[in-house]
Design a protein that fits this description.
Elements (H helix, E strand, L loop, with lengths): L5 E6 L6 E6 L2 E7 L6 H16 L8 E7 L3 H18 L3 E5 H8 L3 E11 L2 E9 L5 E3 L4 E3 L1 H8 L4 E5 L1 H5 L1 H6 L5 E4 L7 H13 L18 H6 L1
Parallel strand pairs: 1-4, 4-5, 6-10, 10-11
Antiparallel strand pairs: 1-2, 2-3, 6-7, 7-8, 7-9
Helix pairs in contact: 1-2, 3-7
Amino acid sequence: MSSEPLILAVETATLPGSLAIARGTEMIGVLSGDPGVSHSNTLLADLEKLLTHTKVKLADIDLFAVAAGPGSFTGLRIGIATVKALAATLDRPCAAVPTLQAVALAGGPSDASIALLPAGRGEVFAQLFSISAAGAVTALDEPSHISPQKMIDKYGSLETAVWCGEGAIAQRELIESSAAGKQWRVAPRINNLARYVATLALRNLNQNEIVAPDALQAIYVRPSDAELKVS
């Protein structure tokens, strides 16, 4: 593998989804999906479009990265299955990047970044991170699946915080109404999360935290609706 690995990042954890191709730290192509269309209908076509645009051949990819969750159950399964198949066919390693890490990184440097993603039924996936000026992402608690009010109860004592991700956009009113006397801000919407997945995948590669395709697993945080009905 060259000193500047070619990385393909797939993010299907969110409704729009996104793709990115990076050569080391240089982002050479990104593509954002359509939230109104299933990833199963668009992912391979979008990938072909991005490869054509960047003039990159799939066989040249050194590392396949995927947002491993939490997020949409169906989306995660589609993204992980696609990455597994491509990486296994080409005998390439994979990087499983927690979606909330990428969300927090996209929010920029902060001592307290709360990454939030919608979890359905009005609830959110949430996790607290610190993000250094150099982009190092440090988890300060475990990911959770909670109601917006419990989210405020959990993180409301923070004097300074950056609220990141689509979950923060959706809960902006509650966050802002709970911010009296505190230095809280809601980070701008992320147009392409896959570019941050690629950045974290490079870090995984440099720290030898990569896996074989068949070892890729989703991070669900909560049971699926089907599993809940069975139980």
